[in-house]
Amino acid sequence: TTATISTSTAASRALFDRARAVTPGGVNSPVRAFNAVGGTPRFITSASGAWLTDADGNDYVDLICSWGPMLLGHAHPEVQAQVMAAVARGTSYGTPTQPEVELAEEIVARTPVERVRFVSSGTEATMSAIRLARGATGRDLVVKFAGCYHGHVDPLLAEAGSGVATLAVPGTSGVPASSAAETLVLPYNDRDAVRAAFAAHGPRIACLITEATPGNMGVVPPEPGFNAFLAETCRTHGALFISDEVMTGFRATAQGGWGLDGAVEGWVPDLMTFGKVMGGGFPAAAFGGRSDLMAHLAPEGPVYQAGTLSGNPVATTAGLATLRLATPEVYAHLDATATTIRDAVAEHLGAAGVPHTVQTAGTMFSVFFTGGPVRDFATASRTDTRAYAAFFHAMLDQGVYLPPSAYEAWFVSAAHDDRAVSTIIDALPAAAAAAATA
Ligand code: PMP
């Protein structure tokens, strides 16, 4: 018999009732809701290392890690100390500060971008990168892939992944038809579709944006050479290649998703976007690229972009501390931990006869409840969401907090130690059995 760790949820349920009265769906970001799996989201009151504690006092091994940022685990003592010291110096000045310069230098050192501009969310980063691409090229059209999520930017919501996929939200609700008409949505990993789009619209395409290695329809790696092909196609047609590394940056590898292919094959995106890990759990994100392109931004150039809290000293201090502590040993630990969890999940789902496909991109991975391979949004959408919901709740009841969606990556941290991993592995037989009978 397996220990049931999640004994009571009365306090979370009471908070959720209050939340729904004052906030749509009771959550401030749709992916946090349990709409796709049923039940009550846990209200977390504290977190430490690999563990979350909810309002009822239940502990969970965290496989969400704030949807990516918590690379080092929660409440890392060194990050915390530097953040506390930054807070004591005042929280926002509206002037340039040293931590911004140092975080920018760190990002420039780790990635192929030459200059960066800080913003407060991944959405702002992709929105601003697209404006910059349009300003620099004098063109309007944007190409994206179905199942990729780039934040809730009007022209990028079309056929998007993450919460848009989970809730099957019509991608264009509230988005002007004129904005949607400027977006071409293509199937991922489909070179013919890319060739056809550029043949038909090449001179009007400002940019193609893609996740460096998609994680928002589950993890769907680019087929070998696909990103290089995209970079080359953009170059040929005078369009800009934007690699969105909000999720993968400083996470998939030390050099992000680019570390898996671009760094090896020798190509560089024109623009990149970052978020999550580089904010160390605070609202911070960035976009960057070649110096000549970034020179189009105000105050150097005519493309306007700004933000009251951009480069906030507390957020950039947290991000800088996180990146400086993200050593090769950290990435090796993430790799090993992810491999152990993936293998155990595959073993138990296999033994229970549950169709599944485990896919990886560096230290990121996800589990599709369908036979594979999964190469695009159409194949990802075959996932058995009922089986996933049963699996999810069985894991939650045994103290493991998975993403409440079958279309999300699972995230581990440097703090996921043997105790956390064995809690996950011990929960798998019952969860696989639940999925098999869903
Ligand atoms: N791009 C990607 C690849 C993402 O994964 C996300 C968030 N999950 C975003 C952009 C948007 O970032 P934010 O939620 O900070 O606006």
Automatic annotation (TrEMBL):
* Membrane recorded as keyword: no
Q: What class of enzyme is it?
A: isomerase
| UniProt-recorded Gene Ontology molecular function terms | glutamate-1-semialdehyde 2,1-aminomutase activity
EC id:
5.4.3.8
- Annotated compartments: Cytoplasm
Q: Which UniProt keywords apply?
A: Cytoplasm, Isomerase, Porphyrin biosynthesis, Pyridoxal phosphate
Cofactor(s), names only, from the UniProt record: pyridoxal 5'-phosphate
Modified positions (N6-(pyridoxal phosphate)lysine) in chain numbering:
K276
Q: Which CDD domains match?
A: OAT_like
Q: Pfam families annotated for this entry?
A: Aminotran_3 (PF00202)
Concerning InterPro entries, the annotation shows: 4pyrrol_synth_GluAld_NH2Trfase (IPR004639), Aminotrans_3 (IPR005814), Aminotrans_3_PPA_site (IPR049704), PyrdxlP-dep_Trfase (IPR015424), PyrdxlP-dep_Trfase_major (IPR015421), PyrdxlP-dep_Trfase_small (IPR015422)
Identify the metabolic or biological route this protein is part of.
Porphyrin-containing compound metabolism; protoporphyrin-IX biosynthesis; 5-aminolevulinate from L-glutamyl-tRNA(Glu): step 2/2
Question: What reaction(s) does this enzyme catalyze?
Answer: (S)-4-amino-5-oxopentanoate = 5-aminolevulinate
Q: Does the keyword Repressor apply?
A: no
Q: Which PANTHER family match?
A: GLUTAMATE-1-SEMIALDEHYDE 2,1-AMINOMUTASE, GLUTAMATE-1-SEMIALDEHYDE 2,1-AMINOMUTASE 1, CHLOROPLASTIC-RELATED
Family statement = Belongs to the class-III pyridoxal-phosphate-dependent aminotransferase family. HemL subfamily.
On assembly, the entry states: Homodimer.
Q: What is this protein called?
A: Glutamate-1-semialdehyde 2,1-aminomutase
Q: Which organism is it from?
A: Nocardioides renjunii
